[in-house]
Amino acid sequence: MKKQKNYCARTDIYNMMIRLHARHKRTDQARGLFFEMQKWRCKPDVDTYNALIHAHGQVGQWRWAMNIMEDMLSAAIPPSRSTYNNLINACGSSGNWREALKVCKKMTENGVGPDLVTHNIVLSAYKSGAQYSKALSYFELMKGTHIRPDTTTLNIVINCLVKLGQYGKAMDIFNSMRDERADSRPDIVTFTSIIHLYSVCGQIENCKAVFSAMLAEAEAVEVLRQMEQEGIKPNIVSICTLLAACGRCRQKVNIDAVLSAAELRCIKLNTVAYNSAIGSYMNVGEFEKAIALYKSMRKRKVLADSVTYTVLISGSYKLSRYSEALGFLDDMVGLKIPLTKEVYSSLICVYSKQGQVAEAESMFNMMKVSGCCPDVVAYTAMLHAYNSAENWAKASAIFLEMEENGIQPDSIACCALLRAFNKGGQPSKVLVLAKYMREKAIPLNDAVFFEMVSACSILQDWKTTIDLIKLMEPWFPLVSIGLLNQLLNLLGKSGKIESMMKLFYKIIASGVPVSFNTYSILLKNLLAAENWRKYIEVLQWMEDSGIQPSKGMFVDIVSFSQKRCGVEYADKIKEKVGKLKLFLP
């Protein structure tokens, strides 16, 4: 057109071209046309500025959009409602919900009233900024403006309710939308949100009250059928969400069903769908099916991305398929796909499990050189590698490096270092690290307590052991009975019989169910301390609790009475044992 002699530049044509570039997120070209039209003496109007603001908003350049608004005001062109809506959207879609609210306030101050589109954009801004409670509050205020919400409004509200765990309210809105008299009918976004809701419920225990006697993935499949009944054709997003739901709920049959449903409906799987399906198969332990799907993906020339290989490598590691994980690494390198943090961490774990510490170190160093900063998972993987190699010094050094880089260690990382210290004969360092954990408020767990008890046992530090028991007391109902038995045995072997019995009383008082082994430890140490009266009393406790003493327990006490006691005490012991009315040798 421009090459023709009779060409006459027109503002409306430039506006149309700017909108076209905006739709395809070609911001530079849109801005170029804006300057070009002025060279041709076409004066930009309100539609021009609106299109340009929209173009920058599409790519998250909200500051550019704000500057364009200022230029618009300088050119004495009054902004329209669409101008403000585009600007609010530019700020909100970038997560800058505060800036979006400022623009909204300026809009009302300038006498331009918000419409339904404005309200939806503000709600979306809150959602993008993870301000879900504020979005719900804004929705309540919106009801007072007599502007009726549409499907987009309710979709945002449902999404926010799901994020806040208010599943019942989300379902109420969904059901109201499906009512025949409803003005706002559910669309594909609505149904996809509900599928996601059910997938989340399959993972959360307390959601059983809301969806009692329902398996979340089965309900999600039902929603897919409902979509078709409503005349809404499921798309690839629905399939991806449903596949992820089945994986979370660990339902291998439904993964196959969803893939079949997609094929029957001629929905062509894309990279995201393949990733969801492969990840779901890995989650349920179906390694062969995951590999078959990966091969199908390659055969159909669907491009694998970093997520694909992250799922394959991490899944292979979790299923102890180490050689396959390394094979996927070769594929990834061959395709020149950058390695992710998850891939690096999984590979470090793979090398660690195979005892290849040098390779694990090499991978860890490669991770740092590539500019991919190691996270707590990667550092923990290296701690496990050094722990397996019984190299406590390197484990300690990597832990210090972790701290220096501002990465807060968690219970798993600390436990790996505690174990390395114990295996390396450094029990005193275990107690120092345990103190550090308490100072940093790092949660203590069963494995951490086990290493602390082991360190006390090696050091024969009874004062610290007693302090440890006091620390552990609130945790008694949560720690394993095996660990408590270890503590009882530690005190008993050291001759601290009174402390051992006090600990036993505390265990009983905490409601922890004691086992046969617990009583066996008590009896063994009581007999070693020649405390036969308490021995017989404990036998009585066993009978009262419904635990049958073994034949050996009676043999031990009778043998003790004959060898170590006088005739008078031997008769008393035999008499007391006889009163138990239990099997005697």
State which percent range the strand residues make up. under 5%
Task: Report the CATH superfamily of the domain at 1-147.
Answer: Tetratricopeptide repeat domain
CATH architecture of the domain at 1-147: Alpha Horseshoe
Assembly status:
single chain
Q: Main beta sheet, described? A: none
Tell me how many strands there are. Answer: 0
Spans of at least 5 consecutive residues whose pLDDT stays below 50 are 203-218, 581-585
Radius of gyration: 34 Å
- Provide the residue-averaged pLDDT: 81
Query: Roughly how many Å apart are the termini?
Result: 112 Å
Q: In DSSP terms, counting alpha (H) and pi (I) runs of 4 or more, how many helices?
A: 32
Shape: elongated
Family: Belongs to the PPR family. P subfamily.
Keywords: Repeat
PPR repeats: 10-44, 45-79, 80-114, 115-149, 150-184, 270-304, 305-339, 340-374, 375-409, 515-549
Pfam family, one: PPR_2
Short description:
It is built from 32 helices and no strands. The protein is an all-alpha fold. It comes from Gossypium barbadense (Sea Island cotton).
